[in-house]
């Protein structure tokens, strides 16, 4: 019971992360900008690093708004480099942004006495230390962002899955792209503060990729992604406490292992589903006779 009470807040936080990131991951995978989360997360971490060097509390409001400002700048850049006539691929700019933000954070931390600990916290976070007040604030913020995406869901999905068609219908792709990346920046800035860059990336990409192995439509993919994220979150938290390992790194590795297992089982599941769909008409015919 003591362990359950200790893990309840981190588990609820991980469910909140799963809910919003699995949905955003569908857009990211469809857009083919897999590393945009890493880039924005690293840009957000750079903002926090600059704030810390300026004497701010890394978990205070000043550091949060500084980090969010950096993320908005990244969102503005990413929303202006997309288009059919752009010569440089969007993923190239995203990769460059990630590399430069990472190097800049390392340079900035070289002036800090706690550079190693801060780097570790940026990468893997420490979701076990999340407080109930942080859980409540994060839930409220992500609920508002979820409502925003629900209201604009048709346009966002059209831009993510059929960008050429969206342009032909006169949709303002770049403006909506900025809104998408800006809302994405709110999520990433808050998530990195709780879970770290690597775990946030896993919450965004791994459930969506795993769901794509078994489903094509958005609804089933979201259901599979949310289910996987929930189960892996619970398993990762329990393993980290039982084996006494860093929580963020444990959950990242758990995501990887579960994804490998789901990939290995895909052929078996597809054969079973195919055999069932083949047998069903024969059984129905036998019943009618």
Describe the structure using short key phrases.
mainly alpha; ABC transporter involved in vitamin B12 uptake, BtuC; 289 residues
Structural summary, described in words:
It is globular and about 50 Å long. Helix 3 (61-80) packs antiparallel against helix 9 (173-195). It has one domain (2-205): ABC transporter involved in vitamin B12 uptake, BtuC, CATH 1.10.3470.10. The protein has 12 helices and no strands. The chain has 289 residues and is mainly alpha-helical. The model has no long low-confidence stretch (mean pLDDT 81). The termini are far apart.
How is the topology of this model organized?
Layout: H1 2-31, H2 36-53, H3 61-80, H4 90-109, H5 115-124, H6 132-151, H7 153-161, H8 163-168, H9 173-195, H10 197-212, H11 218-243, H12 247-288
């Amino acid at each position: 019971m003591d362990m359950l009470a200790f893990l309840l807040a981190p588990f609820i936080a991980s469910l909140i992360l799963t809910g919003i990131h699995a949905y955003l991951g569908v857009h990211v995978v469809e857009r083919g900008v897999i590393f945009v989360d890493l880039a924005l997360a690293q840009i957000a971490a750079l903002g926090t690093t600059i704030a810390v060097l300026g004497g701010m509390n890394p978990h205070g409001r000043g550091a949060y708004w500084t980090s969010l400002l950096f993320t908005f700048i990244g969102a503005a850049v990413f929303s202006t480099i997309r288009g059919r006539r752009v010569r440089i691929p969007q993923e190239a700019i995203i990769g460059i942004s990630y590399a430069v933000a990472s190097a800049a954070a390392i340079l900035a931390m070289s002036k800090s006495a706690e550079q190693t600990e801060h780097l570790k916290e940026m990468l893997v976070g420490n979701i076990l230390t999340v407080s109930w007040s942080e859980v409540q604030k994060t839930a409220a913020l992500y609920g508002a962002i979820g409502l925003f995406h629900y209201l604009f869901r048709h346009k966002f999905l059209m831009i993510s899955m059929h960008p050429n068609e969206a342009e032909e219908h006169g949709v303002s792709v770049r403006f909506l792209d900025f809104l998408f990346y800006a809302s994405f920046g709110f999520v990433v800035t808050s998530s990195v503060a709780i879970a770290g860059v690597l775990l946030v990336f896993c919450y965004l990409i791994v459930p969506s990729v795993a769901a794509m192995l078994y489903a094509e439509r958005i609804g089933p993919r979201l259901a599979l992604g949310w289910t996987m994220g929930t189960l892996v979150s619970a398993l990762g938290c329990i393993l980290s406490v039982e084996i006494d390992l860093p929580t963020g790194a444990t959950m990242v590795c758990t995501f990887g292992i579960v994804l490998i297992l789901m990939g290995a089982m895909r052929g078996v599941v597809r054969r079973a589903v195919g055999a069932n769909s083949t047998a069903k008409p024969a059984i129905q015919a036998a019943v009618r006779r």
